[in-house]
Write a structure and sequence with these properties.
Blueprint: E1 12-14, E2 17-19, E3 26-30, E4 38-43, H1 47-66, H2 69-85, H3 87-98, H4 102-122, E5 139-146, E6 149-153, H5 161-172, E7 176-180, H6 186-198, E8 206-208, H7 213-222, E9 228-232, H8 235-247, E10 251-255, E11 260-264, H9 270-282, E12 292-298, H10 299-314, H11 334-349, E13 353-356, E14 360-361, E15 371-372, E16 375-378, E17 395-401, H12 404-412, E18 416-417, E19 419-423, H13 427-436, E20 441-444, E21 460-461, H14 474-478, E22 479-486
Parallel strand pairs: 6-7, 6-9, 7-8, 9-10, 11-12, 11-19, 12-17, 16-17, 19-20
Antiparallel strand pairs: 1-2, 3-4, 5-22, 13-16, 14-15, 18-21
Helix pairs in contact: 1-7, 2-4, 2-6, 3-4, 3-6, 4-5, 9-10
The chain binds 1,4-dihydronicotinamide adenine dinucleotide and 2-oxoglutaric acid.
Keywords: Oxidoreductase
InterPro entries: Ald_DH/histidinol_DH, Ald_DH_C, Ald_DH_CS_CYS, Ald_DH_CS_GLU, Ald_DH_N, Aldehyde_DH_dom, AlphKGSA_gudD
GO molecular function, one term: aldehyde dehydrogenase (NAD+) activity
Amino acid sequence: MSVAAENKTYFNFINGRWVKAESGGMEQSLNPADTRDIVGLVQKSSIEDVDRAVEAAKQAKKAWRKLSGAERGQFLYKAADIMEQRLDEIAECATREMGKTLPEAKGETARGIAILRYYAGEGMRKTGDVIPSTDTSAFMYTDRVPLGVVGVISPWNFPVAIPIWKMAPALIYGNTVVIKPATETAVTCLKVISCFEEAGIPSGVVNAVTGPGSSAGQRLAEHPDVNGITFTGSNQTGKIIGRTAFERGAKYQLEMGGKNPVIVADDADLDIAVEAVISGAFRSTGQKCTATSRVIVLTGVYDRFKEKLLQQTKEITIGDSLKEDVWMGPIANKQQLDNCLSYIDKGKQEGADLIFGGERLADGKYEKGYYIRPAIFDNVTSGMTIAQEEIFGPVIALIKADTLEEALKTANDVKFGLSASIFTQNIGRMLSFIDEIEAGLIRVNAESAGVELQAPFGGVKQSSSHSREQGEAAKEFFTAVKTVFVKP
Ligand SMILES: NC(=O)C1=CN([C@@H]2O[C@H](COP(=O)(O)OP(=O)(O)OC[C@H]3O[C@@H](n4cnc5c(N)ncnc54)[C@H](O)[C@@H]3O)[C@@H](O)[C@H]2O)C=CC1
Ligand SMILES: O=C(O)CCC(=O)C(=O)O
C-alpha cells in the first residue's frame, strides 16, 4: 500500500460554501487496513458550526419547498449522474475509510445512485388523497408537506448508501438537510455532498458538518430549528437522540442494532445455507445491522452444516480491502476491534467453544491494521452474552435446536428484531417462520443482510423506533399530513 504523501483537508459544507470549523480543530480519518494511510483531515465542528448550518437550512427551506417535486427531482437526477461518473473515486474512498472490500464499496455506491434516481422519480408522484366528506358540498383531501429542516446523523458502516437513503427522500419531499456523518467515514460523505454541489443544488438546501457525536451530533438533535432527526447507529446513542427529540417535540426516526438469527431446518439445502450464512455474517467484516450473528441449526443436520461452514470459512482471504484477492477486510476502527475481541473473550469465559478463528492478526502484512480472523462459536446457548448482544464483527454463534418450535423460540429470545432468515424447502415451515418470527425483515432461503431500496426497511422491538426507511415508506417520516376541509 502506498501511504498518502500529503494529507488532504476537507471542510464543512454550509450555505453552498466549503468552510472551516470555527474552532480551527480537525480530526483524522484513517485507513483501518493500514493506519499510516491518512485518508483526510476533517473539521472538528462545534455547536456554533452546527448552528450556522441549521440557520442556512432554515433560510433555504421556503424556496426549496416552493419548487415542484419534479424540479427538485432534477437536482437528484443530476447528482446521480455526477456520482456515476465519480463512482470509482467514491468507492475507493469508502474502502479506504471503512475497510469493506472494493467490490462491496462499488456495489454500495451504485446502490446510492439508484436510490437518488428512485427518489428523483418520487417527485412526480401523488402527495395526498381525496377523502369523501359527509358534507356533500365540501371538498376534503390530504396533502403531505415537508417537515422543514431535517437533521441526519449517519454511521460509518454504509458511508454512501445510508446518507443518501436519508437525504434523498428528505430532499424530494421538500425538506432542507444538515448531515453529521460519522468521523470514520466523513471524507466519503463529503464527496457525496460535493456531487449535490456539482449538481447545482441551491445554497443551504444541503449542509454537512463533521465532528464528534457527543457535541456536534447532540447539538443537531437538540437544535430547536431542526424539525426532524433521522439516525442510524447504536442503541445507546439512538436512545439519547430519541429522548432529546421527543423532549422538544421534534419528529425522530431511529434505526439501531440487530442480533439477526438464521434458522437452518433439517430439510435445507445446506450448500446454499452455508454460502448465505458466510456472506451474511462475514461480508463487510460483519459490520452490518442486518448481519447474521446467530445460526440456529436443527439437530439432524447440525454436524454436517458445521463441517461445511468450517471448511468454507477457512478459505476466506483476509487483508487490505483494496486488493483484488481479499474477501474480508479489516474492522473499521480500533474501538470496534477491541469491542469484538472482548465479546470473543466473553464467549469463551461463558463456556461456548471457539472452534475457529477469533484471534487478532497483527503480524507481517497485518501489522498496521485492525484485522481479525472470522470466528465461529459452537455449543452456544441463548442466555450467553454472545447470543444476546450485538457484536458488530465477524462472529457466528452456532446454537442447536431439536425442533422448529424450539428454534423459533430461541430466534425470538433477544431484545432486537431487525432481520431473520430460514433455510427450508417446506412451505409449512416457511409460513410458520413468517408468522412467528419477531423481525421487520424476513428472508426465506436468503441471507439476513441486503435490502432492496424500493422496499420498507426497519425493525421491531429495540431495533428501531418502529418507523420504516426507504421505498415509499420514507414518505411517512419525511412529511407531515395536512387534512384539508374546504367549504366553498
Ligand atoms: N445499526 C447500525 O447500522 C450501526 C450500529 N452500530 C453499533 O454501534 C456500536 C458503536 O458504534 P459507534 O460508531 O460508536 O455508534 P454511534 O451510534 O455512537 O454513532 C453513530 C453516529 O451517531 C453520532 N453520535 C454519537 N453520539 C451522539 C450523540 N450523543 N448525539 C448525537 N449523535 C451522536 C456519531 O458521531 C455517528 O455519526 C457498534 O459496535 C454497533 O454495535 C454502529 C454503526 C452502525
Ligand atoms: O443489509 C443492508 O444492506 C443494510 C444494512 C444497514 O442498513 C446497516 O447495517 O445499517
